[in-house]
Amino acid sequence: MASTNTARQSTRSVRLADYVAIARLDHITKQVFIIPGIVLAYLISEVRSPDVVMTVLLGFVCAISIASANYTINEYLDRDFDALHPTKSARTAVQVGLDPRMVALQWLVLVLVGLAAAGFAGRVMFIIACVFAAQGIVYNVRPSRSKDVPYFDVISEAINNPLRMMIGWAMIDPYTIAPSSMLLVYWTGGGFLMTAKRLSEYRDITASHGRDLLARYRASFAGYTAEKLIVACLIYALLSGFFLAVFLIKYRIEYVLALPVFAALFGHYMSLSLQANSVAQKPEHLFRERRLIAVVAILTMVLAFCTFVEMPWLDILLRKSVIVIA
């Protein structure tokens, strides 16, 4: 585990808390993407785990452990590049000389805990957990290190979203995975979120430190411009909306009434990414954004309403017909 540069490190001794810090347990809020998987499995699947409480517990242990394992190698391997970043330079791995053997041991223990929890929950969750752990290696570790390749960095990072949804689904139905249309919604929606994050970083760092530093901090930025990132956001949002419409119409036509709220959610998040020092750069803090939470609350209420209220007049959208004028 070595990088090409030298991180700025303090002279203080390394503490156990430093190793815990690079596992980023404060990012646990990202596991919220598991919850829609749980809800969808209850609404759509006719199969139930014989012990739902236990599989839910094991599923969260799996997701948190493997995510923390991925964060562990992410922060350690990025320490020399993060030293160039205006805010990430304060990260523990940049400031303190961590022992690479201890970092590797922590990664291994966290992965094994996650895989063990998944294994007890069922074969499907175990396979998902293996892919989740492998994604962390592909994204962070050479020779693949997909985070340095423009566009592929977003695609390979955004896959975390459908993996989390599948974990949530497997908590309820341990024998199948969620519908492909919804997994694609999650993947492309994650692509939108990750691209918006990069757009916010691009705008802030180029304005304060210049584009050269940005490219040295993350190689993938050498292939981006603000215009390219905005276009990518638009493409991901359109794709996510398309796959969402497929899912909504296929499984319950009433859900199409929620599409405008979904659009508002994407629009608000895009506006956040265009703000200086945007919270979009730190998704783990999104719960502090009151307007965003308000839109999510409205979306939840609309979906709940559409779940329990039948609207047969919407069936016209499923029929092949034309509007007769005369």
TrEMBL record:
The chain crosses the membrane at residues 28-45, 52-73, 107-138, 229-249, 255-272, 292-314. One of its GO terms (cellular component) is membrane. InterPro entries: UbiA_prenyltransferase, UbiA_sf. The keyword Secreted does not apply. It is a multi-pass membrane protein. GO terms for molecular function: transferase activity, transferring alkyl or aryl (other than methyl) groups. It holds the Pfam family UbiA. Its main location: membrane. Keywords: Cell membrane, Membrane, Transferase, Transmembrane, Transmembrane helix. It is found in: Membrane. This is 4-hydroxybenzoate polyprenyltransferase. It comes from Polymorphobacter multimanifer.
